[in-house]
Design goal:
The chain is α+β, with helices and mostly antiparallel strands. The protein contains 4 helices and 5 strands, in the order βααβββαβα.
């Protein structure tokens, strides 16, 4: 008689937009993996609250009660790309990479962009983030421009 292998169910995930200081604070540890300059949780919460005044939104994916992936984004209008969703930050907790959470959050962002009448979906990724680039290429994204910057 053959033994049946125990089937493990994927964790049930939920995506929410952080609106309260407590929700924002829950995103800190994951976001810090991408933005290590935010060592202190209170400074991170303060910065997000400040940016929210200008339309910044912070979405987070949680599974089994833990935040696994976080995305900061905003809706913009420009001559260049019309109405678009611009993703400032997208990060999956290191121990959860390749588990599908980043892809699930990215798909949620794209669906949200479509629902809000966006014509384009855009993000910048640091030139050193090779694993992230492979992920974006797998999601059918392309490099469409160079982003130039200067510290003032």
């Amino acid at each position: 008689m053959k033994k049946k292998l125990a089937r493990t169910e994927p964790p049930i995930s939920k995506i929410s937009v952080a609106k309260t200081p407590a929700q924002i604070a829950r995103c800190h540890d994951v976001m810090r993996e991408l933005r290590p300059q935010f060592r202190r949780r209170d400074r991170f919460v303060k910065r997000v609250r400040l940016q929210q005044r200008d339309g910044y939104l912070l979405a987070f994916l949680e599974a089994n009660g833990e935040v696994r992936a976080v995305a900061g984004y905003r809706i913009l209008e420009s001559l260049f790309s019309g109405r678009c969703m611009y993703v400032d930050d997208l990060v999956t907790r290191a121990m959860d990479r390749s588990a599908g959470y980043g892809g699930e959050l990215l798909e949620w962002l794209m669906a949200s962009a479509r629902a809000q009448g966006c014509e384009n979906f855009e993000l910048d990724s640091g030139v050193q983030r090779f694993d992230a680039h492979r992920f974006y290429f797998r999601k059918r994204m392309k490099i469409s421009a160079y982003h130039f910057a200067m510290k003032l």
